[in-house]
Amino acid sequence: MPVTHADACLVWPIVAPLATALAAFVLGGRWSTRLGVAVVPIVVAATAVVTWRVWHHGPQTYSLGNWPAPLGIELHADGLSCAMLLMSACIGAVVSVYSVGYFEGSTTASRGQPQKDTGAQFWPLWLMLWSALHALFLSADIFNLYVTLELLTLAAIGLVVLTGTRAAVEAALRYLLAALAGSLLYLAGVALMYGAHGTLDIASLGRSVTADASLQAALLLMMVGLMLKTALFPLHFWLPPAHGSAPAPVSALLSGLVVKGSFYILLRLWFDVFPQEFTRPLTLLPAVLGAAAILWGSMQALVADRLKMLVAYSTVAQLGYLFLVFGLARPGSDTGFAAWSAVVLFALSHACAKGALFLAAGTILHVAGHDRIRDLPAVSRRLPTTFFAIGVASVGLMGLPPTAAFVAKWTLLRVALGGGHIGLAVVIVLGGLLAAAYLFRVLAAAFTQPGVVDTNVSYRKVPRWMEYSTLGLALVSLLLGLASYPVIELLRIGSPWSPPIVQEAAP
Amino acid sequence: MDSSLAWFDAILTLTLVVVALRVLFAQDLFQAIVLFIVFGLLLSLAWCRLGAVDVALAEAAIGAGLTGALFLNTLATTRRHGDQAPPAETIDRKGAWVDDKLPTLRPRPSTPWTGRLAFGLVAGSVTAWMAAVVVPLAVSSDAPRIAIDEAMLRSGVTNPVTAVLLNFRAYDTLLEVAVLMLAVLTVSSLTAGSARVSKALPSGPVLTSFVRLILPVVVMVAVYVLWSGTKAPGGAFQAAALLGAGGVLLLVTDTQSPSCARYLRRVLLVAGLAVFLLVGLGGMLGAGRFLEYPPAWAGVLITLVETVLTVSIALVLVMLFVGTSPTGAEGSARASDETPGATPLVSRERTS
User: Fold this and answer.
1) What is the ipTM of this complex?
2) Is B251 a domain residue?
3) Average model confidence (pLDDT) for chain A?
4) Do A195 and B292 touch (CB under 8 A)?
5) I need a surface site. Which of A151, A184, A321, B317 has the fewest CB within 10 A?
6) A27 to chain B: closest CA residue
7) Is A147's CB within 8 Å of B101's CB?
8) Domain annotation covers residue B223
9) B277–A29 CB contact, under 8 Å
10) Residue range A161-188: average pLDDT?
11) A409-420 as b/e, with b when 16 or more CB fall inside 10 Å?
């Protein structure tokens, strides 16, 4: 037994924010902000160390309490986990910086409403959410994944109700009911798998499962539950109100990170646990629903009259792309890896671009007190940096070169055409056009219409950090395209395609 | 099997189904909640018959007891803030809570019977399908099991449930406690210090002396359940549920309101999770891993963690019942006119 465990680095991305959340809760007030900011470099460094180890030494496993699976719970980091961790660290860091400005002075009363210390309540909830995300991305145990999902959902709901408005409470209640239903369906699947195979460890399940009735039931239950939690059309009904009425940093976190959590679990189960011949008959269902989501979400975004609702419906549409992976990626073929890694890359790119867009919308709301799209021209003169960030993030969302979304969509298109899925290919192209259409509604309002500078309206001052952090995140989404190659190489580590496999003769 | 027990099981199962149906078809929400509590108690009997005494304890204390109390609380709140305008004294001093924050609950138009039938059919067929899958699994005895006999020797406790919860899968429990903390944080961010507990029971000498008599017993039983958890069914969650129920009882009757400083309350709320984390990190000293206990110390450390957890979880359950704000510094200060620095655990509202 080694004296020190280098793989202990897996613990820190989970423990650091959790411990800080407790301290922030106890100390409260100004201290919660200070602690929240102080932990950011620690978390970023911890995820970087994990990635560094995986990059150089391959997938890492850590037995908590020194009880190896199946008795104990193991943490596991491979390329996919690392990519997700890096995404979470990057967006979490930016949102933390933004939140310092956003919640500044939240204690002082304004507009005749009795104020609570929203900032002091934000930090413990957000740090717990961060911890839950990392726990989820690092878990190698299907029951532990359920616990992290619950932690993630409850933290997200606590953040949605922070504003305390009636719309937020109603949206949060709907979100809570949908999310609990999703969790319970997933849990039922976990119970079935444990009953049949006596283990909760993903790796051992992947080795021992056999195609039988209980596995079929488990797969369907988990799939529906996780699709509900990822807001796949037509189960997306809870997302737009929840994401649209939350405080801006929270919307960015929900759209950028939280929905990716349940998607990540589905991705893992589908490719790591369930046997291929078993999932094949079901591949078209999520892919077709994903295609429908792209079209429906884009349509709704086209007619939305508030910027935040537009961005929220855009999330419904973009999540549709993620589900194309189940129709396009086939285990055991090289094109399978191409489609799989493209979709993960798309998720990363979407997280950055969408996060930036929501932060920008929040800044506009903060400054102008509204986010009506037709009244944007007057605001755009006041916030050049923010509107520039919207422009950059829009490029990322539309999938223009050189963004990662372009690389991802191009690859998906190639795989779809190669596999004969003409319909999906058409939707991929159409989705990009529709995204351009609804995003140009915003850009046109900001850049082309002559702005009527209304001198009667008083605008609030905006902390400079809010604007710069938004722009920074938007630029990351742009530059991610240039880093696509190393990201894809990272994803290969420990993926189902990682041992070089002979390509199948005929797909 | 003993034939009289078989009869008991049959009657129990039948009663469970009948009570469940009565809950569903109850016209009055109050009646439905009472029946739900009855259902929970019967269910805990069923768990006992299945040999899962730990689950039975939790079901009785949390499923039936505290959930029932939360439901009754909610019912009282929604009735007060329902379709008629709320009486003036229920409005928060700043006038916020009622009109701004709680969505007004109005009775929904009832679903047409075709909708109900369709929903019933879907739910029924899913249940039947699940049963068809689960029953063969439950009957077959060749399903693989995890061997824990050897590990039990190093776990520090002799009750396997405690060994799983606090040692083998302690990480799950750690995160579950964080879930409880989050629930309190969320509830407090919703109510922001303006929630009150209505005095649900009329005060009187009989009730007051009953509560005075029962509370020490509740505390003693909780300590026993906690202590015996290492060897027999019991443990932190069950003990905390008992303590929490005692706390709720104290709040709804007219005895002295327990008060504690806001700061202390926050410390006690996080103490369980914080100690658990520290013990876990302590395991990493030397050559250990996160949440690893040295076998010689395992029993002591588990008892320590469980004891602190009991206090924190009990407080969490009471706070969930109260729905008051432990963080809203000015919120709680606003709600009280007591001495600064120490606020009562709840601010009481007289319904008279």
Assistant:
1) 0.90
2) yes
3) 87
4) no
5) A184
6) B263
7) no
8) yes
9) no
10) 90
11) bebbbbbbeebe
Contact by Cβ (8 Å): A9, A53: yes
For A34-92, the pLDDT digits (tens) are 999 999 999 999 999 999 999 999 899 999 988 888 889 999 999 999 999 999 999 99
Q: Which domain holds residue B225?
A: 159-352
Placement of tokens 């029924």 in the chain? B124
Number of domains in chain B: 1
Where does residue A236 rank: exposed (0-12), middle (13-18), buried (19+ CB within 10 A)?
buried
**Which of B105, B109, B101 is CA-nearest to residue B80?**
B105
Cα–Cα distance measured from residue A67 to residue A76, given in angstroms and rounded to the nearest whole number: 14
Question: What are B173-209's pLDDT values in tens digits?
Answer: 999 999 999 998 888 777 654 444 544 555 677 877 8
For residue A147, give the nearest of B137, B138, B176 by CB distance. B176
Q: What confidence tens digit (pLDDT) does each residue in A285-321 have?
A: 899 999 999 999 999 999 998 999 999 999 999 999 9
Whether residue B312 lies within 8 A of chain A, CB to CB, comes out as no
pLDDT at A126 over 60: yes
Q: Which residue has the tokens 């505290």?
A: B66
- Provide the 10 A C-beta neighbour count for residue B114: 8
- For residue A169, the chain B residues in CB contact (below 8 A) are 101-103, 190
The secondary structure of A278-323 as a DSSP string is HHGGGTHHHHHHHHHHHHHHHHHHHH-SBHHHHHHHHHHHHHHHHH
Q: In 3-state terms, what secondary structure has residue B84?
A: coil
CB contact under 8 A, B130 and A71: no
Give the integer Cα–Cα distance in Å for B187 and A151. Answer: 15
Set of chain A residues whose Cβ sits within 8 Å of the Cβ of B122: none
Give how far B154 is from chain A: nearest CA, Å: 11
Q: Quick one: which of A445, A255, A449 has its CA closest to A359? A: A255
* CB–CB contact B172 A143 (8 Å): yes
Chain B residues with CB under 8 Å of A1 CB are 287
B168 lies in some domain: yes
